[in-house]
Amino acid sequence: MIKLLYFNIIVVLISTYSYSQSYKYLKKGAWSAYLQLNNSTKLPFHLEISGSKQQPVFTIHNAEEKIELSSIKIINDSLQIDFPHFHSFIRFVVINKTEISGAWTNLNKGDNYRIPFGANLNLKKNICSQQKLLNLSGKWKTTFSPKTEYEEFAVGVFRTEDYSQKITGTFLTESGDYRFLEGFVCDDFMELAAFDGSHAFYFSGKLINGEIQGEFFSGKHYQKNWTANRDEIFKLRNPDSLTFLVKKDTFAFKLKDLEGKEFLFPNEQFKNKITIVQIMGTWCPNCLDETKFLKEMYTKYHQAGLEIISVAYETPSIFEEQVQKVKLLKTRLNLDFTFLIGGQANKALASEQFSMLNQITSYPTTIFLDKNGQVTKIHTGFNGPGTGKVYTDFIKETEDFLKELLK
Question: In terms of residue numbers, what domain contains 40?
């Protein structure tokens, strides 16, 4: 019995050593990676392997965004790299020093939500056969699910470079943007994609008589058609007009803090303070973008009287697990403002808890209150750094607005 136990321990140690060493032989540099969304559709993305042989670093590139994955675990015969902000991971086996294969698992969508993943050491290749490059730079009026009851408008903002196949940009919607998209253009075809650990977005399109006609995939679970036409003046509705007060009563709510204690608002802590109430979730990339922005505002203006309350709606159904996710975000981003638990991620629940508003239609939704506790503005959704000038203009407008409130 004792000999058998020793034998099993030795086997486990040898196996662990073997797989813990395997990543050391992976070549550093730029890799071509992909998610196999379905039988015919691959979402491509850039993967860089750097660091030391003892501690490699995997970095995903989405245009200007870089997501560093440095946490490596050994799981049976595989290696696992976890995403820093979202409850997801890539688990793979090392085929050889230039090839890995496995799957991405997104636990926010359930334990069985997996998409096949693969990567090879990057081999430069010419995508364009005819070197006929499209110039798609500018704004495009975009329609998702055109001519259906689910029709939705967006603004495509694209950037292409002369003599380059590369295209970057994003889509702005009334609930937020599609963040950092990157791809290529060639002949009459274009492709854009992003993979951030929470969402896997893939857009393809073909230019037909001046109109882009294409398909959009979100992971393996969602697909819809889209069209786009050049339009430099088209605008979406003002995000400050979509959510509004329907009751003139005092803006008030009762929720639980991270210790499970009852939290009532308003209270003495926030008396005579400018308060921002953010309705968000740690699983939401747009919320993450906004939270980083709010951290900047808090750092600048907290001493002048700014307070922030983030109300989290999370994917688990158990309170303790919801708290765990929020505490992880607080630690990773070093956040000092107040966090509360709204409950499970559900817009109907959020709308019920904030019944003084017409409806919560988007994560995030952000409410600005003056020193008297009166609502002065409600911003629906968030268009982040992937939107370029839209984002920088928003930063200036919001900061100027806060300065006025703090006077």
Answer: 2-121
